[in-house]
Design brief:
By secondary structure, the protein is of the alpha/beta class. It folds into two domains: 3-64 and 308-407, Aspartate Aminotransferase, domain 1 (Alpha-Beta Complex); 72-305, Aspartate Aminotransferase, domain 2. It has helices spanning 3-7, 40-46, 66-77, 88-102, 117-128, 145-151, 172-179, 202-215, 238-242, 274-287, 294-306, 308-328, 355-365, 392-407, and strands at residues 9-11, 14-18, 29-32, 53-54, 110-114, 134-137, 155-158, 162-164, 167-169, 184-190, 218-222, 249-253, 267-271, 334-335, 343-347, 368-369, 371-372, 383-387. A seven-stranded mixed sheet has the order 5-13-12-11-10-6-7, sandwiched between helices. Strand 8 (162-164) and strand 9 (167-169) form a beta hairpin. Helix 4 packs parallel to helix 11 (294-306). The chain is globular. 45% of the residues are buried.
Length: 411
């Protein structure tokens, strides 16, 4: 069976997207027909006729953690799905995970539940700023940040990352200048950074914390990719460096990216600021943001209690896929060295295509569904983001398509 037959093979009401999980013995991974990654309307809207290998959504396409799927199946088997409290043991499992994997025990911190990272950021912006205030972003950065700021009636203030010969760096001088403006009240930090794959160092985070503390700028640290630092790189939680700086902050966490649970699980907000807890909790109660999903509770606890070995295997696969991608990319296409996330930031600038031309070429000539770099801000022009938490064969197929498409470019 050739690849075209296996990418979107319908089985009953599911779509088999990949033939293998993290080993050759793993069963196929099936997604429902409504999965966003393969939704025909979404593919057609973003990628010409939609006949592409879809690697554009930030989620894993391998066999998911057995302990998590077993927990969901067991909870389904209970036969009762009414209102349910969230046991403290679920939060305890999160902090045991953070202490073991990241050396961050959560001492003196408070943990709140939220339906999503976007919900958390939206509520924090609303509660901690006034209409017209500035929110500092560091593009190219996650596509949802800007709409959240704009929808709240706040102003987007750009502090673009610097692309140096050694990779992306924060422009701390510009950050200090922007933070000094009293109209700018919040900075949203993406740590690790989506899409460029940086895992910010302790020194970089300390510098940001010091700048923001000195000017009274609140830091929202989106750390939903925190578990996905690629060894030997380590993830440094912003909260672990914030305490000594005096900066006010909150961070978003949860298992949704790590374990592929965006359709099931809640997320968490962590902070040491009692005022933030009060404000967030008040708005959360008003909007009923803490209604518990019984399957999400089961999935979160199972992930943090038993998901470590699975994640270790996933990170090995992502590292191997990044190396394979770099090795097989054709001349004219490069890869930003990934330190974290399963998102490759692919550099097409040597092809000398403008934004519309590159987007069209990727969809129609390379037949790849990647997230175009300009989605993440003007600084992303000439790049595209590719999900690499996939079986090796998908990286091979993607690079084969790129090689063929580059060879067909008129010279």
């Amino acid at each position: 069976m050739d690849h075209a037959e296996t990418v979107l093979r319908v089985r009953d009401r599911s779509i088999t997207f990949y033939d293998q999980g993290m080993s050759s013995e793993s069963p196929a991974v099936a997604m429902t027909a409504n999965a966003q990654a393969v939704d025909p309307a979404s593919l057609a809207r973003h990628f010409a006729d939609g006949d592409v290998l879809p690697l554009w959504i930030a989620e894993p396409y391998v066999e998911l953690a057995p302990a998590v799927t077993a927990a969901i199946e067991a909870r389904a088997g209970a036969g009762w799905y009414g209102y349910e409290t969230r046991p403290q043991s679920v939060i305890d499992s999160f902090w045991a995970w953070m202490a073991t994997r990241h050396g961050w025990p959560g001492t003196g911190l408070q943990t709140l539940v939220s339906p999503s990272v976007g919900t958390s950021i939206g509520v924090l912006i609303e509660q901690l700023t006034d209409p017209g205030d500035g929110v500092i972003l560091q593009p190219p950065v996650f596509t949802d940040f800007k709409p959240l700021v704009v929808a709240a009636g706040r102003s987007v203030v750009r502090n673009p990352l610097l692309l140096t010969e050694n990779g992306y760096r924060m422009d701390l001088e510009d950050l200090a200048a922007k933070a000094a403006d009293p109209a700018n009240r919040i900075v949203i930090l993406c740590n690790p950074h989506n899409p460029v794959g940086r895992a910010w160092t302790r020194d970089e985070l300390s510098d940001m914390a010091s700048i923001c503390a000195s000017h009274g700028v609140f830091v929202i640290a989106d750390e939903i990719h925190g578990d996905l630092a690629i060894p030997p790189t380590l993830f440094t939680p912003f909260g672990s460096v914030a305490a000594t700086s005096g900066v006010s902050w909150a961070a978003t966490h949860g298992p949704i990216k790590t374990f592929g649970l965006a359709g099931v699980s809640d997320t968490l907000v962590v902070t040491d600021d009692n005022q933030v807890v009060e404000l967030f909790g008040s708005r959360s109660s008003q909007l009923h943001l803490t209604r518990n999903n019984v399957f999400g509770i089961a999935a979160m606890k199972a992930a943090y209690d038993h998901g470590g070995p699975w994640l270790d295997s996933l990170l090995e696969l992502v590292a191997a896929n990044a190396a394979l991608l770099q090795e097989r990319l054709p001349d004219g296409i490069d890869l930003a060295t990934p330190e974290a996330t399963y998102l490759a930031w692919v550099d097409f600038r040597q092809l000398n295509m403008d934004v519309p031309e590159l987007a069209a070429w990727l969809g129609s000539s390379a037949r790849l569904g990647l997230s175009p770099g300009h989605w993440f801000g003007r600084e992303g022009a000439g790049f595209a983001r590719m999900t690499t938490a996939v079986p090796r064969q998908q990286i091979e197929e993607a690079t084969t398509r790129l090689t063929q498409a580059v060879a067909e470019i008129p010279h």
